[in-house]
Amino acid sequence: MTDNGNLSRAHQLLAAGRFAEARIYLEELLRRAPENPDLLYNLGLRDVDLGQLNQGRELMHRGLKMVP
Questions:
Q1: What is the DSSP letter of 28?
Q2: Whole-angstrom distance, CA of residue 6 vs CA of residue 11
């Protein structure tokens, strides 16, 4: 599956509330592109949805700092 396909699948899983599965796709994409702000933000949203507020906020903040 392409990176775009993985990201699309991760978004589908997030929308369906299947957060653990979505994280697998997002972490693989992040491994390939560790400075991708969209991935960091999406991982952060996933963590917030799971109640991991501090970790989620930190990831989202890292991603937002990269966007001009």
A1: H
A2: 9
> What is the rounded CA–CA span in Å between residue 11 and residue 25?
9
Structure-block tokens of residue 60: 């989202």
Q: Give the pTM.
A: 0.72
Q: Cα(62)–Cα(35) distance, rounded to whole angstroms?
A: 9
Would you call 16 exposed, middle or buried from its count of C-beta atoms within 10 A (0-12, 13-18, 19+)?
A: exposed
Dihedral over Cα of 36, 40, 15, 12: its sign: positive
pLDDT in tens, the chain (68 residues): 677 788 899 889 988 989 889 888 888 888 998 888 988 988 898 888 889 999 999 999 999 998 87
Tokens of 39: 């991935």
32 and 3 Cβ atoms separated by less than 8 Å: yes
